[in-house]
Design a protein that fits this description.
By secondary structure, the protein is mainly α. It has a single domain, classed as Tetracycline Repressor, domain 2 (Orthogonal Bundle), CATH 1.10.357. It contains eleven helices and no strands. Helix 6 packs antiparallel against helix 10, helix 9 runs antiparallel to helix 10 and helix 10 packs across helix 11. It is globular, with a radius of gyration of 19 Å.
Length: 240
């Protein structure tokens, strides 16, 4: 193992500059059958190591904080698989709302067979000590989707788009967790309603910006947000 690989592993799965290593993916996938019983925990990591022949010292270097890093790695693996799926999607021919809907659906579809693992991860990352990391993970997913959809915002809209989409995705995933329909008709209808709400918000925002009085009212908050340069590198997410 060379120095670069060792440093990558020591950072764990939440490092925003590095993709998951092959060994990290192996451990995450091996942990999934155990998560239903043990949750995203040290026990699940230990069992995954035993199943794969990866010793416990190595597993701990890959996931320094055990279960929570394993859960965050699972989320990151979903993002990586979403990126792979979107690489073959012809998003350029779709309306913007259809692009966003398509991407959110794909993100759920790549984890559709791991509902219990998602439920356990959502519960863990909702705990006060981990909630900021869970929010950042969802923010990064929203950023990935907006980038894939060709977003070119370089002002306060960069933030509002990702914040709103993070909320839409979180709500849709929670709805999906309770949807027992194999075809997920109710989930997709819920998503469509949420996207419609976003489109109405964007329409209202545009009307405000086109109105002289509205522009005057928004001048101060808009100016403050525009002073924040949108982060363009994956290690510069707000709150990171």
């Amino acid at each position: 193992m060379d120095r670069v690989e060792m440093e990558t592993q020591m950072r764990g799965p939440t490092d925003r500059n590095m993709p998951l290593t092959a060994e990290q993916v192996t451990l995450i996938e091996a942990a999934l059958p155990h998560v239903a019983f043990d949750g995203w925990s040290n026990d699940a990591l230990r069992a995954a190591g035993q199943d794969t022949g990866i010793d416990q010292y190595e597993a701990k270097r890959l996931f320094p904080r055990g279960g929570v890093d394993l859960a965050l790695g699972f989320h990151k693996l979903g993002d990586q698989r979403l990126s792979e799926a979107l690489a073959t999607s012809d998003l350029g021919t779709m309306r913007i709302r259809d692009r966003i809907t398509h991407c959110v659906r794909k993100r759920i579809e790549v984890i559709a067979d791991e509902r219990e693992a998602v439920r356990r991860a959502a519960s863990l990352l909702a705990l006060p000590m981990y909630a900021p990391e869970g929010a950042r993970a969802m923010w990064r997913t929203a950023d990935l989707i907006w980038d894939a959809c060709g977003d070119t915002a370089d002002d306060y809209n960069w933030y509002t788009k990702r914040a709103i989409l993070s909320g839409v995705m979180s709500a849709t995933v929670l709805y999906w967790l309770g949807d027992q329909d194999p075809e997920l008709h109710a989930t997709w209808a819920f998503l469509d309603r949420r996207i419609e709400g976003v489109m109405q918000f964007e329409k209202t925002k545009a009307q405000i910006q086109n109105n002289p009085l509205g522009r005057a009212m928004m001048a101060v908050p808009t100016g403050l947000l525009n002073m924040l340069k949108p982060p363009r590198r994956p290690d510069q997410y707000p709150g990171a």
